[in-house]
Design brief:
about 375 residues, alpha+beta, seven-stranded mixed β-sheet, 15 strands, globular
Length: about 375
Amino acid sequence: MNHLSTDPNGNAPMSDTSRPITYADAGVDVHAGDKAVELMKASVRRAQRPEVLGGLGGFAGLFDASLLTRMQRPVLATSTDGVGTKVAVAQAMDKHDTIGFDLVGMVVDDIVVCGAEPLFMTDYIACGKVVPERIAAIVSGIADACARAGVALVGGETAEHPGLLGPSEYDVAGAATGVVEHEHVIGPHLVAPGDVVLGLASSGLHSNGYSLVRRVVDAAGWALEDELDDLPGPLGEALLTPTRIYARPLLTLIERLRGDGPAAAGVHALSHVTGGGLAANLARVLPTGTLATVDRATWTPPRIFTLVGAAGGVPREDLERTLNMGVGFVAVLPADHADTAREVLGAEGIDAWVLGEVTAGEATGGDVVQGAKGVDGGAVQVVGEHP
């Protein structure tokens, strides 16, 4: 029998049940959402800056922008991103307090690429069912990562989408804004032949390539609790290792190398190694007519990368253009600054080493990436073999 009928006037369908249908019946629990906000308040208070006005719960986050008036020509930088299918690993392990580091890293570390200081961030969480403790754990990770990056978490949104997402499913996204003095913007316009390419170690897989990684895990028949060759703990823990936050250390490096001189005297370019891998992302920050030669012999990828590659029989080309292979960021700078840069980054807890150098001209032979993601940039050639 059809449970819908029309009213006596034939105007609209109505249910044959006598009980009203509530929002909760539709799968949305407003009270759970309120509880989640209460649970996350302490976390958000940890991720503030003096410029933040007001508190949690407003329709918009307020940030005092008067600091811009002290700049000659302030340029705003903005970025937005998500975490991708890494959230599926967090859901499978029922561990949600680290995914926020992945979100913040993906967003604020894109902003610092141009030399900008990230100022504030907002987040968005879509879920099938609001479980207050789970939402609070996610936001706690976001807040902790913002505090580490020196970024204020000024607002966010949690949306319950029953029927679209399962009760234990969620996705996260975020956006951030930063600022840089125009004359301090770094990028391809500063890069010159003779510059060296410095690699900054990643903490692991970060947040890219998880569709490939999860496919390999399934094909290999591995379980997340398995302890595999040379991994320091269970596989799931290795997969959930949080993305390294580079923003503050890189801003420190930029300031240290620039000193009182012109921008050209310090860091020339930065590249965040995310989707597309090392070569493609480095090519985006090189000017046309230049070639960066990167030598695999200068570093050994952490075990998780070679493990995934071997278990899946993943071709090297595919592996290198999907995963960061142990290099989470790249800095391009004058060769005589390389040692100082390594010292500065080392003091910040980041291992760094010279990957290669920039020369004029084009590559001859071998695998070459020319520009990437719509950018008509320089070329990158990766040579040699890992130790």
